[in-house]
Protein 1
Amino acid sequence: IAGITQAPTSQILAAGRRMTLRCTQDMRHNAMYWYRQDLGLGLRLIHYSNTAGTTGKGEVPDGYSVSRANTDDFPLTLASAVPSQTSVYFCASSDGAGGLNEQFFGPGTRLTVL
Amino acid sequence: GQNIDQPTEMTATEGAIVQINCTYQTSGFNGLFWYQQHAGEAPTFLSYNVLDGLEEKGRFSSFLSRSKGYSYLLLKELQMKDSASYLCAVTDSNYQLIWGAGTKLIIKP
């Protein structure tokens, strides 16, 4: 059982380039989330999806987009990367509302934008 | 605004007990989570409190006082593997999680 996988593990990206971070879960969880984690700050929610076919904006959505075509996959796209998007990105999922249920996290993607 | 406060860093000795505090000010309250995060790894779930009182789970216990906007995580019989960051997160009235910045716990032999 893999749980949640993320790809790539790390990436160095030139500013202005487009990048998609991949996230796949095999737990059949309805809800999925994308967070970014920066030193000295708490996890910040970028986008979320309560069920396949629906998405919502979190605390810091600007510059990011997501899609949820099926239950398992929840890719995060940076349309035109900027240095302030340098961060560690975590994908997570939960069986039901994430505010009331344990969230399971992927291993993270370390992204550096130069 | 919404705010979660935790100490930035704490140091404790192997075999001892440590208490990590979390205070919160949020728009509504629907529960409080504690997660553990080892350096370079993903957060993992430790506990969830929605009612006042103490929840015990092995060496770890979590306490909640809703009237005071306060929680603590108590770690007993500390082991070197407990060196990690401990994240407090509160569910607000919109059922969204608000995360604290985390407390880095350093265990010394």
Protein 2
Amino acid sequence: ETGVTQSPTHLIKTRGQQVTLRCSSQSGHNTVSWYQQALGQGPQFIFQYYREEENGRGNFPPRFSGLQFPNYSSELNVNALELDDSALYLCASSIGQGRIPGSSYEQYFGPGTRLTVT
Amino acid sequence: DQQVKQNSPSLSVQEGRISILNCDYTNSMFDYFLWYKKYPAEGPTFLISISSIKDKNEDGRFTVFLNKSAKHLSLHIVPSQPGDSAVYFCAASGGSQGNLIFGKGTKLSVKP
């Protein structure tokens, strides 16, 4: 069973640029959630995709956007990068949304992408 | 306003003894709780979970206790091993969105 993978591992961008981060979900999982983890903090929810549709969003501005593909992999796009966007970006996959029969609350995380904005 | 709080940033325990990590929450809508372990340069790893209809869940050396009236949960690790040294995050799920809400984490150091 393949776990959650993310690419790239590290990335350095300049303020104002745009970035795309990628995630492949664990085999059999149809839901992907993205989190931002700043230094010394716990992961903060950005948004979740279920069956290719956004299924919930945290307190992040519209310049954070995403996609989920038919194979359940996902992208996180951030436009107009700001210095405060420097963080570890985590992708997590799960089965369903934890609210419907057959789904699960447990989310399984990838290793993350470390984004530095200068 | 933090809905999930881990008030101890760090904890140091001797190998073989019990480690107790604590977590408090404020939102009574939370109905499922999880603990994750995180090593440096890795993503969080799921450890153990508990539904709000239970007050205890056990998996090997790890036991999670839930006190709903106090809005408090704890993770017990017995016996503690040096390989348990990591940052432990408490997370809660509830409401219409399927997201997890995390505490800031507790860094556990288990000394040989």
